[in-house]
Specification:
This protein has 337 residues and is mainly alpha-helical. The protein has helices at residues 26-39, 43-51, 57-62, 74-81, 84-96, 98-108, 112-123, 134-143, 152-173, 195-201, 217-230, 252-256, 266-271, 306-312, 318-334; strands at residues 132-133, 181-182, 240-241, 244-245, 274-275, 288-294, 297-304. The radius of gyration is 21 Å and the shape is globular.
Length: 337
């Protein structure tokens, strides 16, 4: 799971030319010593491993924010994910793993179409899991996160924590830290879990004694479901409801203030100018106003529930969450009956 506002894409498949290694960087070597002490790892192994990491300019570029004034475009974003190739791959994946998806849904309450949507948006069901060395990605972003980013200090600290988790995990599991490939952010496997998410939420769903998100679709399915369950997925609850606005009562500033965190009761929502109907009127939980910008055209809006918010805990983007939902729905509709 990726806590990133960057639009999700299937992990980059580009080949990169490695830059200088971190073997002579004093800050990296000091970090290696600190990691070894905190995690009770062999100091020489951590130093030697981190010393073989390379700075990759393409990774730093990938996390650099777009130029100010570049409008978000939901329809363009959607077209990258809800498209024939992913839908066909999703149908094949669902048919191949129907029993596993049903078991995960039964045990967690997370619907199969949501799990299928996430795995399709993330990696096209394992087809594109990334060609960056995870060690390079995490080291680049830990020690050379672009200073132009408005949250550079915070993000650099986050990736130092992920680097520590990665080194601890590879040391204890015996995996080769130099061989693992992933996204530009260091996310791995079919569900693109960061090292900390692997440690906290990944499960051995096929029962073979090993948690393997790289090669086991069952473990990927179970881990995605477990992740959403942990972030308070509520079985049977819709992710969102359609809405309209009553211009005479509309208080857009108040509605947008909490961002995507469900805050408003149905009554409060309606008092601020949102018109709901059907199932939405029976909703007893909180709602959030979700805005999806469409470039120069008018924005789209929906009423997001706690389950919409749960998907954004996987990737901090409403566009990502809606792409997951709509890809899952499209695959479900394309399934043979």
């Amino acid at each position: 799971a990726k806590h990133s506002k960057k639009p999700a894409t299937a992990a980059s498949s580009q080949t990169t030319v490695p830059g200088p290694s971190y073997s002579q960087r004093l800050d990296a070597l000091q970090a290696a010593d600190d990691i070894a002490q905190r995690q009770h790892l062999d100091r020489d192994w951590v130093r030697q491993t981190l010393g073989q990491a390379n700075y990759v300019a393409a990774i730093a570029k990938a996390v650099t924010p777009p130029a100010v004034g570049v409008a978000k475009n939901w329809q363009l974003y959607r077209s990258r994910f809800v498209e024939p190739l992913r839908i066909r791959a999703g149908v094949a994946f669902w048919l191949a793993h129907r029993d596993t998806l049903q078991r995960a849904e039964r045990e967690t309450g997370v619907p199969a179409d949501i799990m299928v949507g996430i795995l399709g948006v993330e990696t096209i069901y394992g087809q594109q899991t990334g060609n960056f060395r995870v060690l390079d990605a995490l080291a680049t972003l830990a020690f050379d996160f672009p200073a132009s980013h408005p949250r550079a200090v915070e993000r650099s600290a986050y990736f130092r924590t992920e680097l520590e988790q990665f080194l601890s995990w590879t040391f204890s599991s015996g995996r080769d830290p130099l061989a693992l490939k992933g996204s530009y952010a260091g996310a791995m496997g079919l569900p693109q879990f960061m090292p900390s998410s692997w440690a906290s939420y990944a499960v051995d769903f096929d029962g073979d004694g090993v948690v393997d998100l790289l090669g086991s679709p069952a473990d990927a399915i179970g881990s995605v479901a477990n992740y959403l369950k942990t972030f308070n997925w509520q079985p049977g609850l819709a992710t969102h409801f359609p809405l309209e606005f009553d211009a005479s009562k509309l208080d857009m500033a108040a509605l947008m203030a909490p961002d995507i965190l469900p805050t408003f009761s149905v009554e409060n929502f309606q008092a601020k100018g949102v018109v709901l109907g059907g199932e939405a009127l029976k909703h007893t939980g909180k709602l959030a106003l979700i805005e999806l910008q469409n470039g120069d055209a008018a924005s789209s809006y929906v009423a997001g529930t706690d389950n919409f918010y749960a998907i954004t805990r996987y990737n901090w983007s409403s566009y990502y969450a809606m792409a997951v939902i709509e890809l899952g729905q499209a695959v479900a509709q394309a399934m043979p009956h």
